[in-house]
Specification:
Layout (H helix, E strand, L loop, with lengths): L4 E2 L1 H11 L10 H8 L1 E3 L9 H10 L5 H9 L5 E3 L2 E3 L4 H10 L3 H9 L1 H14 L2 E2 L21 H11 L4 E6 L2 E5 L14 H16 L1 E2 L18 E5 L6 E3 L12 E3 L10 H8 L21 E5 L2 E11 L4 E9 L5 H17 L3 E4 L1
Length: 360
């Protein structure tokens, strides 16, 4: 069988369209999250929290972070899991995968602390929802990590239980999470799935969100970028091997726009895919020493049309009321039209943050 071939332009446009970064902008927050399947939660707010930046990139300045909080904590049209905000329809598959793929070391610690687990469930049953600081540490065996989780037994147990669907995150107080029984947070008829069904569901949903992706590859931290056998096999000119493409996005008209992206945006999350399809190199440099950074502490990738064209090095100085533009790095020479469009996005981002643009 002859495998269809896509140009890199076509592949890029499929990826952009799938991520709702083409024109016109989408208008419904919950529908965006349903398409994207997840928003990554990251505490860094050099400009704004990543989940808010992702939604601003799609919705523009009509987006209000309070709408996301309402969807998660009041309407329950979205749910918070460990490290992500998700569509509720994906919960059964996410939980099934987590239960089947728990690291043996973590599973052993979980089982040794079964009395601790029961204590938490009993306490939440009578007093929940609770912050982790309000839950006593009755662990039998402490978490032995030598890293930042060392002796943080309550948080480690709660997160393990949440991944398994035994507890749920019901809301937040600042950056602290409220924990409760899942029956009070998730829908009552949440089904249990076999692993094969869960994996198939997740692969199909992931491909719908990404548009085009590899079947398998090296493991990377966080959410997998791979889609198994979902979709259809294609090759992309100038790239090695084969890809999987969502057929609904092929041969559609494309109208691009300009967007500033979170460093955690799913369009650029898989750095290898980003380099192969867009010819765009990106590394989040906030963990590097200042003198080792090329693009800045929290540089935002810049999308223009069907290309990633540069990085915006900027910081929100809320005390001073300014949006400080340190540099705009051009990966390709900017045309007059590109420069104007990017400047407009910078002004819009600053306006959304209620800050005044200063700097380069």
């Amino acid at each position: 069988m002859v495998v269809p071939c896509l140009s890199r332009n076509e592949a890029r446009r499929i990826a952009i369209r799938a991520q709702l970064l083409d024109a016109p902008r989408p208008t419904d927050l919950v529908n965006i999250c349903e398409r994207l399947t997840l928003l990554q939660i990251d505490p860094t707010a050099a400009i704004a929290p990543s989940a808010d930046l992702v939604l601003w990139s799609r919705l523009g300045s009509t987006y209000d972070p309070a709408d996301l909080t309402r969807a998660v904590e009041t309407d329950r049209t979205l749910v918070e899991t460990v490290a992500y905000i998700r569509s509720p329809r994906d919960l059964p598959a996410v939980i099934a995968e987590a239960r089947a793929r728990t690291h043996p070391f973590t599973q052993a610690w979980f089982e040794e602390n079964e009395p601790f687990r029961r204590d938490i469930l009993a306490l939440l049953g009578t007093r929940g929802p609770l912050l982790s600081r309000d839950i006593p540490d009755t662990s039998v065996v402490p978490w032995p990590s030598s890293g930042w989780t060392n002796n943080r037994n309550v948080t480690r147990m709660l997160e393990s239980m949440a991944l398994h669907g035994d507890v749920a995150i019901s809301g937040r107080k600042g950056r602290q999470r409220y924990w409760d029984l899942p029956g009070r947070v998730y829908r009552a008829d949440l089904p249990s799935l076999d692993l094969d069904v869960a994996v198939r569901h997740r692969d199909e949903r992931r491909l719908a969100a990404l548009g085009i992706a590899r079947s398998t590859g090296p493991q990377i931290p966080g959410e997998s970028p791979y889609v198994g056998d979902a979709g259809e096999e294609v090759v992309v000119e100038g790239t090695p091997g084969t890809w999987r493409v969502h057929p609904a996005y092929v041969d559609l008209p494309f109208e691009g726009r300009t967007a500033l992206l979170s460093p955690f945006d799913r369009l650029i999350h898989d750095r290898v895919r980003t380099e192969q399809l867009f010819g765009f190199e990106y590394i989040l440099e906030m963990y590097k020493p200042r003198d080792k950074r090329r693009w800045g502490y929290y540089a935002l990738p810049v999308l223009h049309g069907d290309q990633l064209v540069g990085k915006l090095d900027a910081t929100a100085d809320r005390k001073a009321g300014t949006f400080v533009v340190n540099a705009i790095h051009e990966d390709v020479p900017f045309t007059t039209a590109m420069t104007a469009a990017i400047r407009t996005e910078i002004e819009d981002l600053a306006d959304w943050l209620d800050l005044e643009v200063v700097g380069a």
